[in-house]
Amino acid sequence: MITVNEKEHVFHLNNGRISYLLYVMDSGQMGHLYFGKALHTGGSYLHMVEKAHRPMTTYITEGDLYTSYEHLRQEYPVYGTSDYRYPALEVQGTDGSSICKPEYHSYVIVSGKKPLEGLPATYVEDDGEAETLEILMRDEWLGLEITLSYTIFRDCDAIARSVRFVNQGKNPLFLDRAMSLSLDYPDADWESVQLSGSWARERSVVTKKLEPGVTAVSSMRGNSSHQHNPFLALKRKDATEHAGEVCGFSLVYSGNFLAQAEVDNYNVLRVMLGINPFGFRWKLEPGESFVTPEAVMVWSCEGMNGMSRQFHTLYRERLARGYWRDRERPVLINNWEATAFDYVEEDLIRFALKAKECGIELFVLDDGWFGARNNDRAGLGDWRANPAKLPNGIKGLADQIEALGMKFGLWFEPEMVNRDSDLFRAHPDYIIQTPGRTPSHGRNQFVLDFSRREVVDEIYGQMYILLSQAKISYIKWDMNRSISECYSSAFPADRQGEIFHRYILGVYSLHERLIQAFPKLLIESCSSGGGRFDAGMLYYAPQGWTSDDSDAIERLKIQYGTSLVYPVSCMGAHVSACPNSQVGRSTPIETRGNVAMTGAFGYELDLNKLSEEELKTVKQQIAFYKQNRGLFAQGSFYRLLSPFEGNFAAWEMAERDGSRALVTVTRILSEINGPYRRIPLLGLNPDRKYRICSRYLSYDAYGDELMQFGLMLEDQASGQVIEGSGGSGSCEDFRSLVYEIMAI
Ligand code: GLA
User: Fold this and answer.
1) Which atom of ligand 1 is nearest to the CA of 526?
2) How far apart are CA 398 and CA 718, in angstroms?
3) What angle do CA 556, 559, 562 make, to 5 degrees?
4) Max alpha carbon distance in the chain (Å)?
5) Beta-carbon neighbour count of residue 42 at 10 Å?
6) Measured between alpha carbons, how far is 705 from 688 in angstroms, rounded to an integer?
7) Whose CA is nearest to atom 1 of ligand 1?
């Protein structure tokens, strides 16, 4: 997959569908040539380099009025040596200078892909699945060695990049900026797509025309954040959901990030992704090394959805890992929205009994079970059961749940502590805080300094005791505030710029230790809903709580946006009570089930409060989900109608061989006497005949008809009460239907 033109020093990564081309410039810096649809191998490509004499330009070599980094497309640009755009790298030497001149030294090509120590990353299961190019560069003056690493995958149109730095010199160096990826496009005729939002309104799709200057999203919160996701896409202006050229960039990281697109005066576009340089400064002592997080870029000519399918396949199969990666996920019930902190063991058993009766497989006990946790002002840090609520302890409760034939899961917020806790009283110095400054709180809690090994050890020790004593099959790992006054008393002044990153490394290390000790444990990540819903977390936790907003109609947008990058199998999605506790909306139980089912499915309400009719529906939903969860987990996901653009949301999960599909259509507001509607489907076999079934109809059609003419939507909105159609209810707001399409 990787070929080298030794004469021209051109490297070509090509898997038959995509190409990535880079070369060594005469100056020694690495230049970029191309990323996109596969090109012929073996050609000469250096004519792609565009440069011209322009006034008011700084040139690299005296006597040469053509060669300026400002005009050259590069792989890993630096500032201050004739390029005035934002660089990928900034290094300061002990003399205070910040000029760096990395020059090509050598390359190696290795089969497969090496792990990134201490960091989440995509992987391969056998070496034939990928090939990796490592370009070694050196700045002799600084004694800095830089290895740019590029992995191309055989079965996925993605390239994974990371950069490793080693200080081979005699003096310390400071990395002030070390991006994971930088890419210079020859033109800027793209739109950028980002996922932005807020608590309970995560990952809305925001599309912008690129203009001269910088477009960026970032986090400076310590977590990847509700506000912006570590992701950016470029789409051609005429690209649609299913056609046209799209490039996607995703950072496999859960902390502060920057995703930036800069358009210069020659309409050249520089895309950058990595740890946010704001507040970042990493000291490299002689002999020390630093590795950036991994950035993944994908290319598709099948529109936004094509990009998403590349991410879904790679992240589901070669980022998520371990026991649960390919296993069917249990249907769960979580008590949080039903009880908050207010419960005792008997309430939980009552919940569990009803859940078992409905076919639910996993009972999850949320916040409030430990220490003095009767509200959010106390208890975090004391991971021991509260005997007033749980007289038999966690073990006693877990045993009872297991005896019912269900699995037991437990909520933790490992990174946090309340002032009112034994842990804080014993170790007030364990929190992140700046000397002489009052630490700010979030939800009355403080962030434990996970950059310190002994702090992580303490929490690991507490969790280990519980997990080894009681039968705990699942944990929900929450994180309910961002970091402020970032500083660690364990590190010297010149290493304080490392703390945000060291914190995340500490979080990853705790995950890793738990996974190693309890390989069958299913971990669901959470951060006040989706405040840390990123590819980094997916490596440790194959599912995440998508949002604290569990209203089915709000979830249409949240899950739709999230699906740009993340597979539906990792999106925790629950049926909750009505009126919904976040937005006060009442939606039919069918709609709540249909929306949640396209995710890691569960319930979050007191089933004892449902009517017989509703319980019947719940049982049917669970049975239906169990029959279809293989498809929901492994199928190809197609977005059909965007809730960001109209009154409908529709999506399809299709078996990869096209033999079956489920299409979920939700009409948000009722409409009267509306138009006839059809939705062209995708991923079917044009030559096969299918049976289309929904609650109200059944007919047969060929795949070509379903993909060209489209799936005809039932006219439940005409205002008529049709016999057998479910009555006037079908004309209400917030109705949804699942169509089953099965090859016959
Ligand atoms: C966060 C989570 C919720 C719930 C509460 C408990 O907000 O996102 O799902 O676990 O914490 O305090």
Assistant:
1) 8
2) 51
3) 145
4) 87
5) 7
6) 10
7) 528
**Pocket-forming residues, ligand 1, beta carbon under 6 Å:** 336, 366-367, 411, 478, 480, 526, 528-529, 545, 548
How many A from CA of 548 to the centre of ligand 1?
7
Distant-in-sequence, close-in-space partners of 391: CB < 8 Å, separation ≥ 6: 345
Q: Which residues pair with 138 in a beta bridge?
A: 103, 145
Task: Tell me which of 201, 226, 333, 336 to substitute to probe ligand 1's pocket, judged by most ligand atoms within 8 Å of the beta carbon.
Answer: 336
* The predicted structure's pLDDT at residue 498: 98
pLDDT tens figures, 531-572? 999 999 999 999 999 999 999 999 999 999 999 999 999 999
Query: What pLDDT, on the 0 to 100 scale, is given for residue 714?
Result: 78
Is residue 245 within 8 Å of 236, Cβ to Cβ? yes
**Catalytic center residues:** 478, 548
Alpha carbon distances (Å) from 407 to 128, 222, 348, 397:
38, 33, 13, 11
Residue with tokens 């649960």: 324
Nearest one of 343, 424, 342 to 378, comparing CA atoms: 424
Asked if omega into 435 is within 30° of 0 (cis), the reply is no
- The pLDDT score that the predictor gives to residue 728 is 47
Structural domains in the chain plus CATH codes? 2-318 (2.70.98.60), 332-424+450-481+521-634 (3.20.20.70), 648-743 (2.60.40.1180)
User: 52: exposed, middle or buried (C-beta count within 10 Å: 0-12, 13-18, 19+)?
Assistant: exposed
With the most atoms of ligand 1 within 8 angstroms of its CB, the residue from 367, 374, 376, 481 to mutate is 367
Of 516, 504, 502, 547, the residue nearest 195 (C-alpha) = 547
Query: pLDDT tens-digit profile of 603-615?
Result: 999 999 999 999 9
Tokens of 393: 């302890």
pLDDT given for residue 695 in this prediction: 82
What pLDDT is stored for residue 730 in this prediction? Answer: 61
Strands 600-604 and 636-641: unpaired
Q: Report residues of the chain scoring pLDDT below 50.
A: 719, 721, 727-728
Ligand 1 pocket test: which of 478, 549, 580, 605 has the largest number of ligand atoms within 8 Å of its C-beta? 478
Task: Please report the pLDDT score of residue 696 as a whole number.
Answer: 79
Nearest Cα to Cα of residue 37 among 304, 311, 246, 309: 246
Residues 707-739 have pLDDT tens digits of: 999 999 876 555 454 555 554 456 789 999 999
Which residue lies with its CA nearest to atom 7 of ligand 1?
528
Angstrom distances, CA of residue 574 to CA of 350, 412, 555, 595:
19, 19, 10, 9
pLDDT of the residue at 44: 87
Strand pairing partners for 74? 31
C-alpha of residue 418 to centroid of ligand 1, in Å: 15
Expressed in angstroms and rounded, the spacing between residue 529 Cα and the centre of ligand 1 is 7
Nearest CA to ligand 1 atom 12: 367
